[in-house]
Design brief:
The complex is a heterodimer of chains A (about 325) and B (about 325).
Chain A: H1 7-13, E1 33-39, H2 47-58, E2 66-71, H3 86-98, E3 103-108, H4 116-122, H5 125-128, H6 132-135, E4 136-138, E5 144-148, E6 156-160, H7 161-164, E7 168-172, E8 174-178, E9 182-184, H8 196-199, H9 204-208, H10 211-221, E10 225-236, E11 244-254, H11 257-267, H12 276-279, E12 292-296
Helix pairs in contact in A: 2-3
Chain B: H1 8-19, H2 36-45, H3 52-63, H4 85-95, H5 100-111, H6 119-128, H7 150-167, H8 174-190, E1 204-205, E2 208-209, H9 214-223, H10 232-242, H11 248-259, H12 265-269, H13 282-291
Antiparallel strand pairs in B: 1-2
Classes of the chains: A alpha/beta (about 325), B mainly alpha (about 325).
């Protein structure tokens, strides 16, 4: 926490949207996007090799970039699987070091809990990543800078300066169902970028503007992204906190978050074209199977149907709406 | 790795003195830019400890964050008034430096409320049974035009109690202050979790009980000074629930909240407590110093000994 990203980062942060977010945003206007699906039976397997293969399949480049890994740690319960597993975060950290990133940081802004570092400690991150505290950015309570153009009636939205100075934001979610959004994957994980010190715990303005709309808007603003979804053990049912563990044995990777989330849905036995935020994600990326270049395993071959709460039963594959 | 008992006050004050920013405020983490929340807690911790120049610089920084609408922004970068207005009002009431600007901040705080009162929201709650919360009781939100949550309500209730105490029962807004305190306290009681503590403000989700958090429990207990909710049985339950909690913020808030009820958390839990490996949170340093024996927790006392039964005592305006 003590070490800040260099002067270049700070100078760049004020106008961060010029490089990493906001501004004249590139829209997805067609064309297939690659998504890699890799088997990972347990956290004890060689995750370094799996992520390396996934990165190669996706053509990931990170040399010289300032990379911010954004895992999902929202709560701690030793008997549950709420957070991105520390083994996955550590493997991702090593991946970007191996890829030649100039700097790798880990950042998160939990939505409910104020004691961010404590959550990270309980989740085992301090043990998994050497010098974790110096590499970690509390996205809830960092210094902030404005990004213009977040939805209507919101002329600007404030975000962590260290986030805005990153060249590449890596969304590292857990593969989970979600009792409001249906699923929470690489796009919903971006809620943790919103600073609690400005918007509160929870980040209630996002709920008032609409969860689905906010998910899409954050993905629109932060477009220099890559996703690594921890689907080794996911969560089904009443996620994102009170669900139950689901052994799904996969890692899903890709640079287009909509395509990654759509692929994850298929792995989960859910129809992405029925997930509201993905329906709204035109311009972010493809969600139709034909528009996604599946690499590695076929989603159907590794599909493990996730249980959903009653409101989302229609999301299940093969169900008529 | 440091023990968190015994020397909390001195250690906390020394850390605060070392970490004040050149502009007079404090960041959430030492060396980072100033925010109102850590600055207000640091300012309170440093009252009466012989560091008047440090405290005065902090005062000037806090004053610079007031907006034209009377409210206070979370720092100088972010426009728009927010929940930190409550901390600003508390500081002014504690300092006894009440002026027109403080009055305008009080007006802002009294006008601010969670969005639960809106008809559409009540309708939504009734058909979805989203949270189990009673929308008749509303408090304060983190951000304007959003819902009431536990922590901003806690700080607003305390701010109004402190302001009411300073201004006295004859003040023109004493009645409004008392009513908002009553509603805020009722909201907090309504949001209490099934396990006896509090979380951020949702005791239920989709019919399932949600667990409490130590920091929110300490905060709610802090606001509910004088309420019978902190009975001997409740203390015993809290002790069982949170004995062994590692979160520095959770422990700091439990200490401070229970101090307000004459309870020494460290005596209650007894023995060596688990120690967290991290410790750079400026707000926690300040809260630990305030909650320590001999700390400025006494300045934040808004009520006498708790009543033992029934509804809350009248708000102390005298």
């Amino acid at each position: 926490m003590r070490k800040q990203w260099g002067r270049r980062g700070f100078l760049g942060a004020g106008a961060g949207w010029l490089s990493g977010c906001g501004g004249d945003l590139p829209r997805w206007t067609g064309g297939r996007r690659p998504v890699a699906v890799l088997k990972a039976a347990a956290y004890g397997v060689d995750l370094d090799d799996i992520l390396w293969r996934g990165a190669r399949l996706c053509g990931l480049q990170a040399r010289g970039k300032r990379v911010l890994l954004k895992p999902n740690f929202v709560e701690f319960d030793s008997g549950s699987c709420i957070n991105t597993d520390m083994a996955m975060v550590a493997a991702a950290y090593r991946l970007f070091e191996r890829l030649g990133a100039a700097e790798v940081r880990i950042g998160e802004g939990p939505g409910h809990r104020r004691d961010t570092m404590h959550l990270a400690e309980e989740a085992g991150y301090f043990d998994a990543v050497a010098g974790f505290e110096d590499r970690f950015v509390d996205l809830n309570r960092d210094e902030v800078a404005p990004v213009p153009g977040f939805l209507e009636n919101e002329p600007e939205m404030y975000f962590s300066r260290q986030l805005l100075s990153a060249d590449l934001i890596v969304s590292l979610p857990k593969m989970k169902t979600h009792h409001w959004a249906g699923v929470t994957l690489s796009m919903k994980n971006l809620f943790g970028l919103v600073p609690g010190a400005v918007y509160g715990w929870p980040k209630n303005p996002l709920h008032y503007r609409g969860i689905d709309r906010s998910i899409v808007e954050l993905s629109r603003i932060f477009h220099n992204t890559f996703a690594i979804v921890d689907g080794v053990v996911g969560m089904e049912g009443n996620g994102p906190i009170q669900g139950t563990a689901k052994d799904s044995g996969v890692v899903v990777m890709g640079s287009n978050l909509a395509a990654v989330d759509a692929t994850c849905c298929r792995v989960m036995g859910l129809d992405p074209e029925k997930v509201r935020y993905l329906q709204m994600a035109a311009g972010i990326g493809p969600i139709r199977e034909i528009e996604i270049e599946q690499r590695g395993e076929s989603p159907r071959a590794v599909m493990t149907p996730f249980a959903v709460t009653g409101e989302f039963l229609d999301l299940r594959m093969g169900r008529e709406s | 790795m440091e023990p968190d008992q015994g020397k909390g006050l001195q250690r906390g004050l020394e850390r605060l003195l070392r970490s004040q920013n050149a502009d007079g405020g404090w960041g959430y983490y030492a060396g980072s830019g100033s925010w109102m929340e850590p600055s207000a807690w640091a300012w309170i911790a440093l009252q009466g400890v012989g560091e008047d120049r440090v405290a005065e610089r902090a005062w000037d920084w806090m004053r610079s964050c007031q907006r034209s609408d009377g409210g206070v922004s979370p720092n100088r970068t972010v426009p728009g008034s927010s929940w930190v207005t409550s901390l600003w009002v508390s500081a002014h009431a504690l300092a006894g430096r009440w002026d027109g600007n403080a009055g305008r901040a009080l007006d802002w705080l009294l006008a601010a409320h969670g969005a639960e009162g809106a008809l559409w929201r009540r309708w939504l709650e009734s058909i979805r049974t989203v949270s189990g919360n009673n929308p008749d009781y509303f408090g304060w939100s983190w951000h304007p035009e959003t819902s009431s949550w536990v922590e901003p309500t806690v700080h607003s209730v305390v701010a109004l109690k402190l302001a009411g105490k300073l201004l006295g029962p004859g003040h023109g807004r004493a009645g409004e202050i008392a009513e908002r305190v009553r509603l805020g306290e009722e909201m907090l009681l309504d949001r209490r979790c099934a396990d006896g503590g509090w979380n951020y403000g949702a005791s239920m989700a989709l019919g399932e009980a949600l667990p409490s958090y130590p920091e929110c429990t300490g905060q709610a207990v802090f606001a509910l000074q004088g309420r019978s909710v902190i009975s001997a049985a409740a203390v015993a339950a809290l002790t069982t629930r949170w004995n062994g909690v590692r979160s520095p913020m959770g422990r700091a808030w439990l200490r401070l909240g229970l101090r307000m009820h004459g309870i020494d958390w460290d005596e209650v839990v007894g023995g060596a407590q688990p120690i967290s490996v991290h410790g750079r949170d400026v707000s926690v340093w300040a809260l630990e110093a305030i909650a320590a024996a001999g700390g400025n927790h006494r300045l934040l006392r808004t009520a006498g000994p708790p009543k033992t039964a029934g509804l809350p005592p009248a708000v102390d305006l005298g």
